[in-house]
Amino acid sequence: MTAEECHNLQSLRDFKISQNNIQSLPLWIYKLEKLEFLDLRSNDNLLKIESAVQEMKSLIRLDCGGCENLKEPPYSVCQQGIAAIKKFFVDFAADKPVKLVEVPIAVIGNTMSGKTSLFRTLKAGKRTLTFRNERSEKDETTRVFKVEDLPLEDTQIKLFDYGGNHAYHLAYHILSKERCVPLIVVDVADFAKRAQADGSEEACRTVCFDWLSHLYLASPKLGAPILVLTHTDELSSDQLSQAREDLLTTCESIRGKLSDEENSLESLFPKTLIHIQHLSDRQLPLFDTGDIFEFGNDLDETSNIEHLKEKLNDRCKQHIIELPKLWNSVELFIQQCSEQPYVEVSTVLAEFPVDEPLIILRYMHNAGRVFFFENIEALSHIIFHKFTEITSMINMLFHHSSQQHWDNHLSKFVSFTHNGRAIHKLEYEEMIHRLLHDGILAEALLHNLLKSSPFSMAVSVELLRSFLMMHGPIGQLSYKEYLVPALACESIKSLFKMESPLKLKLDIMFGGLAVPNYVHHQISVTVLNLLKSPLHESSAQKNGVTISHGNIVTNVVHDLHKRVTSLQIATTTQELGKSWQLLIDATKAIVHQLSHSWKACSVTFRIYCSHCLFIADHQPDSQVNPEWLNLTPELNRGQIKVEPSLFSGIEPVLCKRYSPSPVQVPTPLRFPCFQLTDKEITKLDKYLQTLKPFQASSTDDEQRHSLKDLGVDEGVSPVPLTALNEDSDLSDVEKEGYCDHKSSADIILRLRRVNKKRVKDLYNNEEKVLRHI
Length: 773
Hints:
Elements: H1 3-7, E1 14-16, E2 37-39, E3 61-63, H2 75-78, H3 82-94, E4 98-101, E5 105-108, H4 115-124, E6 145-151, E7 156-162, E8 181-187, H5 188-198, H6 200-216, E9 226-230, H7 237-268, H8 277-280, E10 292-294, H9 301-317, E11 320-323, H10 325-335, E12 343-344, H11 345-351, H12 357-366, E13 382-383, H13 387-395, H14 402-411, E14 416-418, E15 421-423, H15 425-438, E16 440-442, H16 443-449, H17 457-466, E17 481-483, E18 502-511, H18 518-530, E19 537-541, E20 544-549, E21 552-559, E22 564-571, H19 576-597, E23 602-608, H20 610-614, E24 622-624, E25 652-655, E26 663-666, H21 678-691, H22 756-764, H23 766-772
Parallel strand pairs: 1-2, 2-3, 5-7, 5-8, 8-9, 9-10
Antiparallel strand pairs: 4-11, 6-7, 12-13, 14-15, 16-17, 18-22, 18-23, 19-20, 20-21, 21-22, 23-24, 25-26
Helix pairs in contact: 5-6, 5-7, 6-7, 18-19
């Protein structure tokens, strides 16, 4: 751009250049003196922001979201905004910077696949196995996760060893980072057995794709994974070759199916998906030949170890960054406080009285070096630097040998006092039973479990709640109890309390790469947190949760086989508006949680006709991704917005269950009406009375009822517009499925006589016309 052209932009205040694949910013941008907002989002190839950004005095907002390849400054700094970027450059210039690897190695795979043995082998330079015996106190099974340092040729990297047992999956998201090097360990002998018993595709999903989902759904821009095949010595040469080929071929087949499914969804609902880059790029193999390693007694272990370490070293070299010396000194100081379970923020501030110290702590949290929960009031003064203490605390509740773990715990029980009340073994045993059966955790039990933890009771509770492992306290008892849905074993049997006259139902349907099972437990806790109140009765089941509040009963039901989470509300006509608001708020909360933690999660929504649910129709009418949900172009931003004024009254709309001759039903049975007058509620009650003879017993023809009780003549055409709205001749609301471009329904045009006043009213109502357009 010429100097003259640049001069013409001097008054520019907002500049949006997101999704442009730029690698660096043109220098003239730094000369825009009046620029206040610079939007750089989703420029995947952007590597650097120049220090000249410090001269942009008017710039108050710089959005680098999704620019995860930034190295100067590191993305973990840039995602904090312009203040953090400017501080980085000031501190960077103050002293010689420090080079380090910012990205860890994430080791995943089935339990007993050899992950921990692999790490020990890499560290020792020779084959080193792990002692496994869940009944022994010397059992070396990785519990929850481990974070250890692995020295390499040029540097030292952090290795995250994820415990393979399903009991620990609920904690995986704690270590989830936007950047890491995925390394999946597959017991090839175990795969061969599973393939013979269950088929190659099911075996491949179990040992491979179910594990990749933990990382790639959370961080869709991760690069290619490294594959390590273990226990190769348990197969003959021919068997090993066949199993290896079967695994790789099946992986590509599943990858193709996932890609086709996502493309199909995107054609129906454009711009609602975030693709996993490596899985979507079919031109590259899922596992490159140079990224596959084999380990077994009959192989040259020393050579394989060195080759794998070289591969890790090469991959990590791509993520070397330079950090201000001051920032590295803060981290070293925190890590040296090894005798303490955590460090007080005030201790760090006393040692480093610098400007804006929280920017450094946020960077360390974003980069996975510490846990700093700034937004949780009870934890905002604490820096957690010893991950082992956190895993030990989690392991007290979640254990790979659950029954044996609790039996051992009971065998060592000693009576204790909690809040002035003596707790004896019989009562304690009942507490454990309630936890493992109903997911109800008594505070006295938690207190006793945590007696060996370095964390206080208050800190432990806040950690477990922030990790979405636990909800509470619940109820109005004199002693506290918490809900842990992941530990409940009963199932929700009755989806609705049938004595409640009305039912609302919305399904959240997962597509593409399957989300880990524990995500459903996180959803349960998210809804429990949304509806928290001491007046509510809450219960947990292994397939969901139930919350009763007055005349409203909310169920969250998970069907893992069908990959559906269902929000179901049983309510009354008096509480219908409140229940619609609750349904929308719960959907918002779930989508926000998914989009924050599982960016590439593929989700569609199906909402059912309450008229059909009321008469217990086995094939109720429904809408998929209705336009009134106002989903933003990208689901990953997690914004759902329903205008409160969009639907109101009880005017008739169509239920298309009985197509080609659909019936009319009141608006609140099809669309979210947040407020109903007493008169409208009375009319709705009278209408529902006319349906009772048809509940679950009548034929389709018999169910074609009229809306006489709503004041609508039987002869009125079933037009889904606002026929009863006296202020307008045309509807100012668009009902999805009837007026939109996706509808397959016939368009019905009604002509009415109008006067000049009504024409003028419509002509002058610009807001109404624009909204309709």
